[in-house]
Design goal:
The complex is a heterodimer of chains A (389) and B (149).
Chain A lengths: L8 E8 L10 H16 L8 E3 L7 H9 L5 E3 L7 H14 L6 E7 L1 H5 L27 H16 L3 H15 L13 H5 L3 E3 L2 E2 L9 E9 H4 L7 E10 L16 H12 L8 E4 L4 H10 L8 H5 L17 H5 L6 H13 L12 E8 L4 E8 L4
Parallel strand pairs in A: 2-3, 2-4, 9-10
Antiparallel strand pairs in A: 1-7, 1-8, 4-7, 5-6, 8-11, 10-11
Helix pairs in contact in A: 6-10
Chain B lengths: L26 H8 L4 E5 L5 E2 L13 E5 L3 E10 L13 E8 L4 E6 L12 E8 L5 E7 H4 L1
Antiparallel strand pairs in B: 1-2, 1-3, 4-5, 4-7, 5-6, 7-8
């Protein structure tokens, strides 16, 4: 879609809430804290907000958070695609502002799953309790969230010879980045040997192949280039976006366990942005599990299919490496409150503004945030840039 | 595998396997399982085979009918679950969850039973073995062909 004059969509403000442990805050208060900070970052107030987007696991979730925050927006969106939701919500917000439907969209995320549920996420269920309609078919076998990703990892190893040590390299690199992030949940350095000798949760994934479980949230402000010209921060342009899905909760319906929806939406988003993978300076890639990152770098075209294991080895994902990735420490080490997609966007914007601190990628001009949701079920790619093209 | 003793010292009686609630799409599938038969859908227009049960063919959107499957297949991928806090599964740990490609093409999720978890491998030949989980439903577990024959 060609935006009206002056209405190029930009991100004018970002923030994370406090994290990773917020026993003193309600889930909605986490949204509020992140919203306050993102609006302050953008030089705006709640009075400027006419659009609102967020998502959670209840119907009409966005209207509930809008009510809590005292917002009466003329645009709202609560599309839920799991971990990729916030990339989708920002894409939608970009279309809405470019079409002239709305001027300032506040997008928030908040979760206190660590305080509410403890560290159980991903290692329970599998008994059909949550399975609506056709989701029952894969819900009778005691499979866990981790088990789905484990089967993808096993298949990748079988087809391409990927090793546990290569998967572990992802966790090691994320931890190196997390060591420089004072908020990160886990900051102690780890080695490949630490990862592969940690307890198996679902073969071949070990405990340290799995993300942390946290409280936390974030927010961003999507507005127009024209509006951002009067605001304090340099705007970050939304250059291209796309999302895709291959299945819902039935992993048996995924056509290939080694090809994720990123293979579909990544090239579309890059084409819309007019870039190729070689143009990307820094990436924020959903790292629910180490295998998620290996699959994503392949499917987004940073390396050929099957070469992800070699790509992530030897610091390939670290600042100075082949593709600096998850410069805040990622979900594997910094923070994973359940749907981490907002953190990817916030960190991408910070990198493009040069606010990356110890893990700043020098002269980062193009960033990619790619969310993955469900059981490798959804993917959503955002290409962000410091310049308009 | 459902009879395996709890590893946690849990004194409660074993919780049964979860059972599906048949609906208009799935009732013939679960009923066949209850009778010890594995059935799949065949498109009467383009001959494509599919599971899970749907009201139409996924290839051409044509009408589908139920046909018997051989019950043979091979392991496409699998995992050994070593952590699950939910009952009854935590009583089974370690156990194998797998995706099996049926000889006829469709892929199903299942448990591999009748062998040690460490014996399972991708490509392993397996065959269906049924478990009755309610008055109206049976489900297809799979076991290595070598062990079943």
């Amino acid at each position: 879609m060609t935006p009206r004059r002056g209405r190029r969509a930009v991100i004018a403000g970002v923030a994370t809430s406090d994290y990773p442990h917020l026993p003193h805050l309600s889930e909605h208060a986490v949204h509020g804290q992140a919203a306050d900070r993102a609006l302050a970052d953008a030089g705006l107030t709640f009075a400027d907000v006419d659009g609102f987007a967020t998502t959670g696991f209840f119907p009409m979730y966005a209207t509930g958070v809008a009510e809590y925050l005292g917002l009466h927006p003329i645009y709202f969106d609560e599309t839920n695609s799991g971990g990729s939701s916030f990339e989708v919500l920002v894409e939608h917000a970009a279309y809405a502002v470019e079409a002239g439907a709305v001027d300032v969209v506040l997008v928030t995320y908040g979760s206190v799953q660590l305080s509410q549920m403890g560290r159980r996420l991903g290692t329970g269920g599998g008994g059909g309790g949550f399975a609506p309609g056709p989701a029952i078919y894969d819900a009778l076998w005691g499979n866990t969230l981790v088990g789905n990703y484990a089967m993808a990892a096993r298949r990748h190893m079988h087809e391409f010879g990927t090793t546990p040590e290569q998967l572990a390299a992802v966790a090691v690199s994320m931890r190196r980045h997390a060591a420089t992030n004072p908020q990160a949940q886990e900051r102690e350095p780890i080695t490949v040997d630490d990862v592969v000798s940690s307890r198996l949760v679902a073969d071949p994934l070990h405990k340290l192949d799995c993300c942390v479980i946290s409280d936390g949230g974030g927010a961003c402000i999507v507005t127009t280039e024209e509006r951002a010209a009067d605001l304090p921060r340099d705007p970050i342009y939304i250059l291209g976006a796309a999302h895709a899905t291959t299945h819902h909760l039935n992993l048996s319906a995924m056509p290939s366990l080694t090809v994720t929806p990123a293979a579909q939406c990544g090239p579309v988003a890059f084409a819309r942005a007019g870039i190729t993978p070689a143009d990307v300076d820094v990436a924020q890639l959903y790292d629910s599990f180490t295998i998620t990152v290996v699959l994503t770098v392949e499917d987004l075209g940073f390396c050929a299919k099957g070469e992800g294991g070699a790509f992530v080895e030897g610091g390939g994902l670290e600042v100075g490496g082949r593709l600096p990735t998850n410069t805040d420490g990622g979900g594997l080490s910094a923070c994973h409150p359940g749907m981490r997609g907002m953190f990817l966007i916030v960190e991408a914007v910070r990198q493009l503004r040069g606010e990356g601190g110890p893990t700043q990628v020098p002269d980062a001009r193009i960033a990619v945030a790619h969310g993955t949701g469900g059981m490798l079920s959804t993917g959503a790619t955002l290409v962000l840039g410091r310049e308009a093209s | 595998m459902t009879d395996r003793a709890p590893a946690t010292g849990d004194e409660r009686p074993p919780k049964p396997r979860p059972a599906p609630t048949p609906d208009a799409d799935s009732a013939p599938y679960w009923t066949a399982g209850h009778e010890g038969r594995l059935v799949i859908q065949r498109c009467t227009s383009c001959d494509a085979r599919q599971l899970y049960p749907r009201d139409r063919c996924l290839v051409c959107r044509g009408p589908v009918e139920w046909v018997e499957a051989s019950g043979r297949g091979s392991v496409y991928s699998f995992t050994v679950i070593r952590q699950n806090y939910s009952r009854p599964f935590r009583d089974w740990i370690p156990y194998v969850v797998a995706l099996v490609d049926l000889e006829e093409g469709p892929r199903v999720m299942t448990n591999i039973v009748g062998c040690e978890p460490d014996a399972v491998h991708i490509g392993m030949a397996v065959r269906a073995q049924f478990a009755t989980v309610s008055d109206e439903a049976g489900i297809a577990l799979f076991t290595p062909v070598a062990a079943a024959d």
